[in-house]
Amino acid sequence: MALVEIMRLWSEGVAAADKGDWTNALKSFTSITDPRSKICFNIGCCHLVLGDLHEAEKAFTSTIEKDNHLAVGYFQRGSVLFKKGMYSQALRDWARCFTELRGNHLIDYKILGLTYKLYSCEILYNVALANAKLGNWAKAEENLVLALSQKAEPRHGTKIEKAMQEMLVSPRLTIEELKVMPGNIVFVLKKGDDNWSTVLFNGKVSLMALLMPESMTC
At what angle do helices 120-133 and 87-100 cross, to 10 degrees? Predict the structure, then answer.
C-alpha cells in the first residue's frame, strides 16, 4: 500500500476516534495492509472500547510482535487478559511492561503518534491487582506502597490509597491490637486529619491511631 494511502487512512481513523466513532475508526485502521506496531495498537484500542476482548488481545499481540519493546503494548494486552480472568498472564505482561519502562516514571507516546501517557505507578497498581487476584497479598501490598511512592498526579494517590483501604487494609486497629511493641518500626504511608493514618507494619497495611508512646519508632 502506498504511503499516501496509509497516511490518509491513519488520519481518518484518528479523526473518527477523536469523535468517539470507534466503529469507523476501526474500519479505517484495519484497511491498512501490513500495519505497523502503532496501527495494531490503535486497532486493539478500538476493539477494547467496542468490547471485543478476543480481537483486542490479537491486535495487542501483533503490536508486541512488531515491537517487543513497546511497553504500552504489554500494558494494554495485560488489561485485556485481566478482564478475561487470566490473572497470571496479565501479571506477566504488566511485569514486562514495567521492565520496558527502563526506570522511567512516565513515557509519553505522542512522539510515536499515539495520544497515550503511561505512568509507572499505574503499572504497579495493576500489578498489585493481579497479585491480589492470585492471592499474593504480600506482593500486592508491596506493589501498592511502591506505586504510591511514584504517583505523578493527585488522582493516582487517591486511587492507590482507595485500593489499599478496600483491598488490603485491615479495619482501624489500635497499637495494642496490632501487637506493636516499643522499638518496632512502623512505616507511615499517609497521615490522616483525625489521628488515624495508613501504616505498613509487619507486612500488613492498616489504619492506626497515631497516639503512640514516645519510645515508638515511626
Answer: 160
For every residue of 136-159, which 3-state class applies, written as one string?
CHHHHHHHHHHHHHCCCCHHHHHH
pLDDT in tens, 55-74: 999 999 999 999 999 999 99
* pLDDT > 70 in the chain, percent: 74
Report residue 43 as a C-alpha cell: 486497532
Cα dihedral 63, 17, 108, 84, rounded to 10, equals -50
Please give the model's pTM, rounded to 2 decimal places: 0.74
**Contact indicator for 118, 109 with CB cutoff of 8 Å:** yes
Using one digit for the tens of pLDDT, what is the confidence trace for 147-159?
888 887 778 878 7
Give the list of residues 6+ apart from residue 189 with CB closer than 8 angstroms, or none: 145, 148, 164, 197, 198, 199, 200, 205
